[in-house]
Amino acid sequence: MAMNTGGSDGEGMSEINVTPLIDIMLVMLIIFMIITPPTLSQMSAKLPEDTEEVPEDDVPQDQLVAAVCEDGSFALNKKKMSLEALAIDVKRRLRGKATKVVFVDGHPDANYELMVSMMDTIRASGAERLGIASLKEGDDFRACTPTPAAPTAPAVPADGAAPVPG
Q1: What is the pLDDT of residues 33-82, one digit of tens each?
Q2: Alpha-carbon distance 144 to 135, whole Å?
Q3: pLDDT in tens, 10-32
Q4: What is the pTM of this model?
Q5: What is the distance between the alpha carbons of residues 19 and 8, in angstroms, rounded to a whole number?
Q6: Domains of the chain and CATH, by start
């Protein structure tokens, strides 16, 4: 085995010595391997084990759902309002609750910055936990659409006669 030590004229060696580079990379690898497990446990998320879709009729009336609409406006339980009004309403509604949970939803075309701003505002208003709704298609997103009013029964005249169709 021969080793090249440079030219015969006393010239320097033109090859790069990679041994120190490999030593530094191995030390960095060991450091990252030690640091990574605690960092991952600090960033853990509580994911549900089993999910099911709940019909809109079965959703509890006191549940709070905040949303960012396609046009950049905000809504709380399908009622459009400004971000400041949303913060005040969330704070008022969470005041007497034992579990301070607010679900957040956003239109697929909504601005990401508005979504983060809304989530920060809700957190600052007293919500201890935020539930994030799954991504929906544009047609399936109904968090900003007011619920239609229930049809009312026609009024019965006082004399007991049949109601007059209007």
Answers
A1: 888 877 666 666 666 677 666 665 666 677 888 888 888 889 888 888 89
A2: 14
A3: 667 678 889 999 999 999 999 99
A4: 0.56
A5: 25
A6: 63-132 (3.30.420.270)
Q: What is the DSSP string of 22-82?
A: HHHHHHHHHHHHHHHHHHHHHT-----SS--PPPGGGS-TT-EEEEE-TTS-EEETTEEE-
Phi, psi of 105 (to 5 degrees): -140, 160
Which of helix, strand or coil describes residue 129? strand
**Alpha-helix residue ranges (DSSP H) falling in 103-149:** 112-124
Amino acid code (one letter) for 27: V
Neighbours of 142 (CB within 10 A): 13
- Gap between the Cα atoms of 133 and 105, Å rounded: 5
Other Cβ atoms within 10 Å of 111 Cβ, number: 13
62: nearest Cα among 24, 26, 103: 103
Apex 96 CA angle, 95 and 97, nearest 5: 100
Nearest Cα residue to 106 out of 70, 59, 52:
70
